[in-house]
Amino acid sequence: MTRGARVFWTGFVLHFKNLSASPFMMVTAAIWPLVYATLAFLMFRATHQAPSLLYAALGAAVMGIWSTTATSAGGAIQQQRWLGILELLVGTPARLILVLAPITVAIAGIGVYSIATTLLWGRLLFGVPIHVLHPFLFAVAIPAAVLSIGMLGLVLASSFVLYRSASNLSQALEYPIWLITGMLIPLSLLPGWVHPLAWALAPTWGMRAVRRAAIGGDVGVPLLVCAALTVAYTVLAFLLLHHFERLARDRATLALT
Amino acid sequence: MKTWLRIFFVGGVISFRALFSWIRPSIYIPTMLLGPTTQVLFFAYLGRTAHLKSDSWFVVGNAVQSASVAALFGMGFAIDGERWTQTLSAVLATPANRAALFLGRALPVLVNAAVTAATGFLGGALLLGFRMPWSQVPALALVLLLASFACTGLGMLTGAVGLRMRDVPIIANLTMAVLLIFCGVNIPLDKLPGWMHRTADWLPMTHSIAAARRIAEGASLRSVSSELLRELALGLTYLLVGFGLMRFFEQEGRRLGTLDRA
Questions:
Q1: Overall number of domains in chain B
Q2: How confident is the model over B103-150, as pLDDT tens digits?
Q3: Residue B71 domain-assigned (yes or no)
Q4: pLDDT value at A256 more than 70
Q5: Would you say residue B75 lies in a domain?
Q6: Cβ neighbours for B206, distance < 8 A, ≥ 6 positions apart
Q7: How many CB pairs under 8 A join A and B?
Q8: Which residues in chain A touch residue B50, judged by CB atoms under 8 angstroms apart?
Q9: How far are the Cα atoms of A107, B47, B60, B211, B222 from residue B214, in angstroms, in the given order?
Q10: Of A32, A125, A198, B128, which has the most beta carbons under 10 Å away?
C-alpha cells in the first residue's frame, strides 16, 4: 500500500513539474479558461437574469481542469508510446495503473492553474468578489475534483489506447462534457435524458463540490460521489489496462504507433 | 504560367494531404466536423443561461467562427509541419515561385474551413432546429467562403510567424481566442467595451458574422455588400502582409541559418 502510494505520488510530482514547463499545456490550463471566463462574464453581465459572475468564474476554472484532461489525457498512453518508453513502463515491477494514473491525474492537476488565474482575472478585470464561504471544504473539493477527473482521463486513455487517433477523439469530448456537466450551464436547462449521463461523470460532481464550497450548499454529497466515482473509474481503468496489456503482449504491438 | 499553376494547385493539394495528420477520417470527423456542432450547442445553451439572444443567433455566429479553427491551424501547420518533418529547408531551397508555393497551400485550407463552418450550420439545424430560407443558402455559402478566405489570410500571417517561432499551435490558439471574444460571435458588439468594438472592426470574421446573420434572416447579398467588401479587403490585407512577412522571414532564415532551428 505504502509502496503503491509512493509510486503514485512520485509519478504525480514528476509529471506535474514536467507539464508545468510545457508552454502548450500552460496555454490550455491558464489562458483558455480566461477566454471562456471573459465570454461568460461579458454574456452574463449583459443581462440581469444570468447567474452571478462568481458562478461563471468557478465554472470556467473547472472547465480548465477538464480542458487539460480532454486535450492530453486521452492520448497519454499513446504519448508514452511515441516517446519510446511504453515498453519500459509496462515492464516495471509496479502495476501499470500505478505508473499511468499519475500521468492523467497530473494532467488534470495542471488545471489547478486555471482556478488561480480565472479567479484572479475575474477579480482584477471584472471586479468579481472572491468570497469563498467554506475555505476548508473548498481546499478539499479541488483535489477531490482533480483526482476524479484525472481518473476519468485514465479511463479515456485506456479505452482509446488501441485507437490511433485517441488524442483527437478525446479532444472532441471537450465541449460536450462542458455542456452536460453543469459547469456554466445549469443541468435543469438540458433535456432529461442528459441527466443520468451527467451523474456518471466526475466533472459534474467536482464542479458541484467546488461551487457549493464557495457559494453555499451541501458539499458532502458531491464529495462522496467524487470519491465513489474515483474508485469506480480506477476499477474500470484497471480492467481496461489489464485487457490492453494482454492484447498488446499477445500481438506484440506494444511499441507500434 | 503552367508551372506556376501546377505548383499552386497540385503542390497545394499534395501539401495539404501530406501535412495534415488529421486528414484521416478517424481524426477529421471528430476534430473538424463534430467540433463546430459541439461548439454551436455549447454556446447556444450558454446563451439560454444568460438569456442573451436566440439559438439562431448563436448558431450563425459560432458556425461561421468555426472556420477559423481550420484556417488558422491549417495555415500554421502548413509551414510548421514542414519543420517537423524536416522538409522546410528542402522546400525553401526549390526555385519555385513563392506566391504559387505558399498561396497554393492556402487554397485547400480555405475550402476545408468553409466545409467545417457548414457542418456547424448542419449541426445547428439538426440539434437546435435552426432554419433559414433555402433561397438564402447560396448567399450564405458565399459568406462562408469569404470568411474562410479572410481567416486563411490571418492564418498566412500565423504561418509566417511560425517561420520565426516554434510554437505555432500557441499562436493559433491565442489568435482564435481573440476572434472568439472580439468578433461578436457570442456577445453582441454593442455589449462589448468600446475599444474591443473598435478592434473587432479590423479583425476577420466580424463582418462575415454580421453579414451571415442578416442573410440568415432573409436579407439580400446587395444589402450586406459593404460588410462583405470590408471582409474581402481585410482578408486581402492579411494575406499580403502574411505573404510579405513569410518572404522576409525566409530571407532572414537563410541569412542567419535558422530555418530548421527556430
A1: 1
A2: 888 888 888 899 999 999 999 999 999 999 999 999 999 999 999 999
A3: yes
A4: no
A5: yes
A6: B182, B183, B184, B189, B200
A7: 97
A8: 40, 43-44, 46-47, 49-50
A9: 43, 19, 10, 5, 11
A10: A32
CA A157 to mean position of chain CA atoms: 12
Q: Is residue B10 part of a domain?
A: yes
Has the ipTM of the complex gone over 0.95? no
Domain count, chain A: 1
A198: in domain: yes
**pLDDT single digits (tens) A68-126:** 888 887 777 777 888 888 888 888 888 889 988 999 999 999 988 888 899 999 899 88
- Read off the pLDDT of each residue in B141-162 and give the average, rounded to a whole number: 91
Whole-angstrom Cα distance, residue A114 to residue B155?
A: 27
Indicate yes or no: CB of A40 within 8 angstroms of CB of B39: no
Structural domain span for residue A88: 2-251
DSSP string across A84-146: T-HHHHHHSSS-HHHHHHHHHHHHHHHTHHHHHHHHHHHHHHH------S-HHHHHHHHHHHH
Instruction: Give A84 to chain B, closest Cα distance, Å.
Output: 18
pLDDT at residue B141, as a whole number: 95
Q: Which residue of B has its CA nearest to A50?
A: B50
Instruction: Provide the CB-side half-sphere exposure for A68 (13 A, CA).
Output: 35
Domain span at B190: 2-256
Q: Which of A240, A147, A143, A137 is nearest to A202 (CA)?
A: A147
Residue A256 lies in a domain: no
Q: pLDDT per residue over A8-48, tens digit each?
A: 999 999 999 998 988 888 887 888 889 999 999 899 888 87
Alpha-carbon distance of A206 to A184, in angstroms, equals 13
User: Is residue B197 predicted with pLDDT exceeding 70?
Assistant: yes
Write out the three cell numbers for B244. 510579405
Q: What is the pLDDT of residues B13-22, one digit of tens each?
A: 777 776 555 5
Distant-in-sequence, close-in-space partners of B156: CB < 8 Å, separation ≥ 6: B75, B102, B106, B238, B239, B242, B243, B246
Given this model, what pLDDT does residue B256 score?
81
Contact B42 A44 (CB under 8 A): no
Residue B80 and residue B159 in contact, taking contact as beta carbons nearer than 8 Å: yes
**Nearest CB partner across the interface for B50, out of A46, A165, A178:** A46
